Amino acid sequence: MFQGIAIHSSSVRRQYTHALAVDSGMLLLTRATDCYPGPNELTRLCALSAPDVILLDIDNPEAALACLESLQRTYPDVPVICFGGTPVQQKAFRPRGVSHFLDYPPEPHTFVATLAQAIRSSHDGSLPGLFAFVPAKAGSGSSTLAAGVAATMAGCLGKRVLCADADLRCGPLATMFGVQPRGSLQGALSSADELDQFKWNNCVTPLYGADFLLSTGTLPNPFPEWSHYFALLRFVESRYDVLLFDLPELINDSTEEVIRRASSVVVVATQETVSLTLAERRIAELQKWGAPDDRIHLLVNRWTGRDTEAAEAASLAAWQIRWKIPNDYQRARAIQAGELPVPPASSLGKALLQLAQDLLGGEAAMEAPAVRGAGLAGVFRSLVSRHQLQ
Q1: Which of 19, 51, 222, 320 counts the highest number of beta carbons within 10 A?
Q2: Domains (ranges, CATH) in the chain?
Q3: Pairing between β-strand 53-57 and β-strand 80-83 as defined by DSSP bridges
């Protein structure tokens, strides 16, 4: 649950805002006033720990502006939602850095939507060390790669790693490793606002030098919202060097938060035409969900030169292939049997180590990630046809 400060022009308006906050299930008002505070009261307000949002009644614009200036000096990065006032009065607050407004009395759904917009707008940058793996289609090997990279980062690079199986419906990692999860992502999300180190230790399953947040394979009721993932990320970001999220192929309103904050989103495809076609579709979906182009990368798994010549496949114009993971069937099966980390001397081990280093900021990670152009599948078919005619 997010925490907020609310300043009102009357007790009636305070009571209404309090009811909205309670009904939203998202906002706890740690301090709310019945009138515009004077200097001493503002000093006490500014002594509180930084809230997630400030609600400011602008029924009296002059008094509201004085409060705004004091609050912004203390909490320069906290978003402010102004409510009430006329459109002309609201316009006067925009040069002061306020971009979120509500008419009074606000409708509950509008209140929730504006609250979410304000909080997310102040946390729109990427989180260093947060990486998401998204399969182009089921069976692309995304979960196997995520597990392999997690163990490589922990075992070979000495990083504190959390690997979360975010496929709530299937939960492949627990099945892959043949373990009964000590805790689950479902449990962590349901109590994300109340997590502490003791509860967290009961959520994660330590394996192969990393912490795994496994899925039970059951859909929770109620279904998690974006705010649950937001709270989870806020709790874990300072506890780990690396956060790996193994996502299902379809992003939703909840997992959007991971995509929006990830420093890299790796779309995992194979060389088959269907997989490449769906990779293009996944990339378009990721862009709609707010992932910038320079954070989206295409990885081709189970690479073999027999299907497409390396030089030809590397020239795919729709989205440049960033990584090619060799088709090492025995090593991949070993990962699924829990033989981790992959020996770095093997071909798959070398590829996973390179992938891990690139994600963490190796020289290859600085290269331009994408070249735009024709559709993936169309270019792929053209390349294969030319190869067959030669």
Answers
A1: 51
A2: 2-121 (3.40.50.2300), 127-389 (3.40.50.300)
A3: parallel
